[in-house]
Structures are given as structure tokens and as C-alpha cells.
Amino acid sequence: MNDLAPLLTPEGRALLDEVRDTAPADELTVATRLRREHPVELVSAALGQARLRQRAAAKFGPQDAGRMFFTPNGVEQSTRASVATYRAERLKALGVTSVADLCCGIGGDAIALARAGIRVLAVDRDPLTAAAARANADALGIADLVEVREADVTEVDTAAYDAVFVDPARRGGRGRIFDPEAYSPPLSWAVEAALKAPHAALKIAPGIPHEAIPADAEAEWISDGGDVKEAVLWFGTEPGAVRATLLPGPRTLLGRGLPDPEVRSVGRYLYEPDGAAIRAHLVAEVAEQLDGGLIDPTIAYVTADELRATPYATAYEITDQLPFNLKKLKALLRERGVGILTVKKRGSAVEPEELRKKVKPQGPNSATVFLTRVAGAPTMLIGAPA
């Protein structure tokens, strides 16, 4: 699919409506029938777009995804709507009324910005991607707030805009790109562009080394439903600040530069910090809330004797602590009739599926096993959600 124009015609739109709910197993039958009345290329494009819309529903919701236009890369790389909405609302709260959205992709962030009442210049150099962004602004009724421009972002003048948002490509021919200077455009260029505007937000991979974060940026890690989605470098806010934000909410934990928590013996409860807090290096802030300590200096599990509610960690009540030994684990699970086994690991080379195959859990009861290290020793902690 290298041209959206046929799908934007009355015939193309009618076909999209007709194939909307086509299951993958039925595609051949549907395609054979439709090709009797429509061009082969148009039928293939419609079915391909239907597949992309079905995949995109998880990010954009079925209502929006069912009206939008996607490219395969656009589905994979676009921002989840909940995260884009949060970021747009934060920009709005800063007084931003116009944004230059550089590397806009299929327009996920531009949509959220426009819905927040912000005027957007959306720029992408790929013709098909820019066409999808333009079609999406039109389909969702926000075309009056979104100007889509097909151009190289490095040649765009952003002086007329209150803020710059940059979402550089972090995938190449060989998969994910981990070096920020290998992004397209490189992080150094994005930072330069950010410093020219009163406010800026740069979307980056959550695994970025903290030493790569500019001193004049605020760094924020965002999770949605417990899954870390991205990190953002903010300019024009709080230089040097570090925060973890959890969605839905939002709930935000601000770093205070606390020293690493003390290591202590495993207590009654084990807390698994949210991934955003871990990525932001804010486990100490979580531990302080829980009056807890670490089970190992290199492991991001917090232990405490009391159960305390916090949105920034999930609590488990620990019933057993054993040295790593699969035979002992298998015997314990059999004795307790555990057939529903959740396996979590941190600091262990054993894969959960590998362990599950070896212990062969059977029975009506459930348990959670943590494969980890306690004070440097390979350990199994068994318990259940508190």
C-alpha cells in the first residue's frame, strides 16, 4: 500500500465500511467476492487498512481507529492515545497554544494536541505518512487546527510556534535503535530545536541512559496500565527534575534525590515498583513511602513488614523464602495444590515459561513465585497479591 488516495474516494470508503470487521481467516473469501466488482488493488488496500485499523484499536480506541488511516509503521510507532492526551494537556497547562509537531507520523500526537485546542503544524518527510496524518485530521474533524506538511523536519522554521514536539524515529532496518544519536533525527538535533522554543517535549526511548539526559531538561517516564510506554524530555519546565507518571490518573512521583534504600531481610510484604518509577531511578522514593528497604542492592524489589497502599508499587504477601531449587519448588506447589502459577523474575536467568514447564503446576489454587536474588543469593519467594 503506497497510496491512500483510492481509499479516500467514495468507492474506497464504501469498501472500507464493508470489510471493517473481516476476520483474518475470512479475508481470502471476502477478497475473492469483492474482486468481481472492484479493482484488485483497491480490494487489497481496503483489507490491509482494515487489518491495521483492528490492530490500532488498542492504541486509539475502536471508535477513532475505525475512522483513521494507518501505515504498518504508523500503527507500531504512534503514541498511545492516553499518553498523547496526557502530554497535550500538560502543554496546554503551560499556556501553549501552538505546537510544531516534528516527525508527526500518522498524527497521533497532533490529534491529541488539536483536541486540547492547540494549533498544530504536523511535519513528516514520508509522503504516505503525511497523507495518512492529513486524512486522519480530516476524518476526526480537526483539520481546521492541523496543518500537515510533507518536509524534512530539519528544514522547518518553528519560530512562530509556542512549543516544539519531536518524536524521532527509533527503529531502523535492524529493529530498535538504542543510541540516541542514531535516532532520526539525532537527539542532539532535537535538543537544539527544543532550545529555540519557549517550551518543548522530546519523546525518547524509556531505556535512555540517564547520563544522556541534558542538564537543562526535565525527564519524565510514563507508564499506562503498568506498562512503561515512553520517556519525555521537557524544556521550559523544571530543569533537572525527574518524575514518573502513571496513567490512568495521572499520578506523578517527583524525584527528590534520595540515597539508595538500605538492604534488609525479606519482610512480610514484597513490593514491585511500577516500571516508570524503576526507569526514573525513583525506587528510593517508593521505598520511603512504604518504610521499606531493598532485598538486594541491585534488585528493584522493596520489602516491608506493613501493608501500605501506594499507586507506585504492587504489593504481594510473602509466605515462603527458599534458596533457588526447582525440586523443592515443585514439591511445595504440589503440596499446596497450585495449578495457577504466576512467575516473575528480576536478577534471574531462568525464563518463566521454562520454569513452568519443569514444575508442572496442577491444582485449583494460585500462587506467585519471584525468581530473584536476596543479598546476592539466588532465591525463590512465594506469595500472592496482597
SS field, number of helical segments: 13
Distance between the termini: 50 Å
Largest sheet data: 9 strands, mixed
For the biggest β-sheet, the strand order reads 3-2-1-4-7-9-8-10-11
Strand proportion: 25-35%
Query: Pairing-aware structural class of the strands and helices?
Result: alpha/beta
Number of strands: 18
Could you tell me the radius of gyration in angstroms? Answer: 24 Å
Q: Which blocks of ≥5 consecutive residues have pLDDT under 50?
A: none
Average pLDDT figure: 94
**Percent of residues in helices:** 25-40%
Gross geometry:
globular
Structure, explained:
With 386 residues, this protein is of the alpha/beta class. The protein is built from 13 helices and 18 strands. The strands form 3 sheets. It has a 9-stranded mixed sheet, sandwiched between helices. A hairpin with a 7-residue loop joins strand 13 (293-294) and strand 14. Helix 1 (10-19) crosses helix 3 and helix 6 (81-93) crosses helix 7.
